[in-house]
């Protein structure tokens, strides 16, 4: 009996749960919304240096005369949510398989404002975030992306994000499957003493560690690339992006526990443990 396999079993179970949560976070409006890959904040749209009440005739002329006057009055007021006047949400929470949108309460200028999620897209494994198309579809008639100075750099980055997002999901799925297999091999390893079973357990653990590590690395890359691209335009048009710290902690924790399981399995494989059958001249157990 190999009691050290209890540790590898615990690691495999932990990795399995954390990797599933990383993949499915935000699947519903009330499910792990604070575990996003990144948050795109467009609540300050219209407050950047490219907007002035005199120069943005395209933005102003697309709205009704009443709203035009409102925007002329408030375009320099940092406390006003111009995005809401355009019918846009305040933020988008981007997850691995979908995105959710909502508004800040009472408003976006309040420190630690409450996130009210109002809608989530359909969750699919082939999901990739397309902020340009989403914002364009939400804009009222008469207002274009050019009117709000939407950066073409973000549009150009979407193709790269599409490719790496799909790679990320594929590796998450493989990692989840392998960590699930690792649970069974670890459970079997509790009742066996042979090096062959330890080697097989180590092999599964290593593969799970590598695939979850790749998924976590790709997710981190998506987070960093998208955030850096978006935050280049914070001062100009008022949009901003923030990284999902809880998501990072969860996905890398899943990777770390599989690394620990791999190390324990390697020790089991190298050290082995003499069993009763060998002691009395019998055959080695597997």
TrEMBL record:
The chain crosses the membrane at residues 6-25, 169-190, 202-226, 247-267. Pfam families: SUR7. It comes from Fonsecaea multimorphosa CBS 102226. PANTHER family: CELL MEMBRANE PROTEIN YLR413W-RELATED (PTHR28019), SUR7 PROTEIN (PTHR28019:SF7). This is MARVEL domain-containing protein. The keyword Oxidoreductase does not apply. GO terms for cellular component: cell cortex of cell tip; plasma membrane. One of its GO terms (biological process) is fungal-type cell wall organization. Keywords: Membrane, Transmembrane, Transmembrane helix.
